[in-house]
């Protein structure tokens, strides 16, 4: 099993930002990506944290990300709009889109903002949490490349197509729930590879369509809850891809096959101002009461407590941001190196960045 080291958040941010700048990303954009990846690692979502830097750096260096994107906002109605991302680095474009959506929701009571032509945007929980900190209810979803075997099928068609939700509460951090529509996200496979760990045989299948525990043999992921997850991933593709006139299903660009090409992905934000429907303090108190009632439920055998969905990520965040974030030694060695290497994704070779 790969050794894990503890890194202070500020140091991890610095290492990630420096590596992305070395690859060619603008400092302000690299800073945004680094903040996002540190957030993911601090939440225990290591599949969307520092393990992604190797891939991002390679795509940036090879021209698969627009380094100086011309980001524009097209307002299409009182509560609707489209952000044209010009295939800039995903986290930066998505954050700009979220800012437009927040302003629109506060003005109109709700906002539905699509993001066209964006690269991989990372963990959706980052965005919905920020919206909930502005006293808004937030939903976000995005496309990903075809790596999921549909229920009853033997070939990949949809992506992991995640969905995230957040709501403000009376006390403490917002309630945040973020999930892939697969049993596990592809980043979990990358995380297992980086740590040389086996995966459960319910996560994925190999090239022959058979369940596998070897993360290096994964050819396709499995939808969560069979046909239900299959239906959800179709819904996400319709709302974040087809709705924006973008490629969908098996036509969505691959994350790893050609890193010189732009991704042209889609993302959707749906924000609601609860003040337009109910009294805000009462709403936030109701969320708090729900949490307390869940905590008061007697735990089942083998459990210490009932947590609300996503709560364990917040518990880890509070702990890791204070005590330091666990990072796989292999990932940390890469971040501290002077090269951008690209063998993690089935490629070979490296080139110096200093």
TrEMBL record:
| Pfam families per UniProt | Ldh_2 (PF02615)
Molecular function via GO: ureidoglycolate dehydrogenase activity
Which of the seven top EC classes does this enzyme belong to?
Answer: oxidoreductase
Tell me where on the tree of life, at the top rank, the source sits: Bacteria
Q: What is its EC number?
A: 1.1.1.154
| Record has Cytoplasm as a keyword | no
Keywords (alphabetical) are: Oxidoreductase
Q: Which PANTHER family match?
A: MALATE DEHYDROGENASE, OXIDOREDUCTASE-RELATED
Q: Which family does it belong to?
A: Belongs to the LDH2/MDH2 oxidoreductase family.
Against NCBIfam families, the record matches this protein to: AllD (TIGR03175), PRK15025.1 (NF011599)
**Name of the protein:** Ureidoglycolate dehydrogenase
Instruction: Please report the organism this UniProt entry assigns to the protein.
Output: Enterococcus hulanensis
């Amino acid at each position: 099993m790969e050794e894990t080291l503890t890194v202070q958040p500020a140091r991890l941010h610095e290492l990630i930002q420096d590596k992305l700048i070395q690859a060619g990303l603008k400092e302000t954009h690299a800073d945004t990506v680094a903040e996002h990846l540190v957030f993911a690692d601090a939440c225990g979502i290591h599949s969307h944290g520092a393990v992604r830097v190797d891939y991002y750096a390679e795509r940036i260096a090879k021209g698969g990300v627009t380094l100086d994107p011309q980001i524009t906002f097209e307002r299409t109605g009182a509560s609707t709009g489209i952000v044209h991302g010009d295939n800039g680095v995903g986290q930066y474009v998505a954050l700009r889109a979220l800012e437009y959506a927040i302003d629109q929701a506060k003005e109109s009571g709700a906002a539905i903002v699509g993001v066209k032509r964006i690269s991989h945007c990372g963990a959706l929980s980052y965005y919905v949490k920020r919206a909930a900190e502005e006293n808004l209810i937030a939903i976000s979803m995005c496309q990903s490349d075809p790596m999921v075997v549909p229920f009853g099928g033997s070939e990949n068609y949809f992506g992991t197509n995640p969905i995230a939700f957040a709501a403000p509460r009376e006390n403490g951090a917002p309630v945040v729930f973020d999930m892939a529509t697969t049993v596990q996200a592809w980043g979990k496979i990358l995380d297992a590879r980086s740590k040389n760990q086996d995966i459960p045989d319910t996560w994925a299948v190999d090239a022959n369509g058979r369940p596998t525990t070897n993360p290096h043999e994964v050819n396709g992921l499995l939808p969560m809850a069979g046909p239900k997850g299959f239906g959800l991933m179709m819904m996400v593709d319709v709302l974040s891809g087809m709705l924006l006139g973008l490629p969908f299903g098996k036509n969505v660009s691959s994350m790893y096959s050609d890193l010189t090409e732009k991704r042209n992905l889609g993302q959707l934000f749906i924000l609601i101002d609860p003040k337009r429907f109910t009294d805000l303090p009462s709403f936030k108190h109701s969320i708090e009461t729900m949490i307390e009632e869940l905590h008061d439920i007697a735990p089942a055998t083998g459990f210490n407590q009932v947590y609300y969905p996503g709560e364990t990520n917040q518990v880890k965040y509070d702990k890791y941001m204070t005590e330091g974030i666990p990072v796989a030694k292999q990932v940390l060695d890469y971040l501290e190196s002077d090269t951008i290497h690209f063998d993690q994704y089935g490629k070979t070779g490296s080139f110096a960045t200093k």
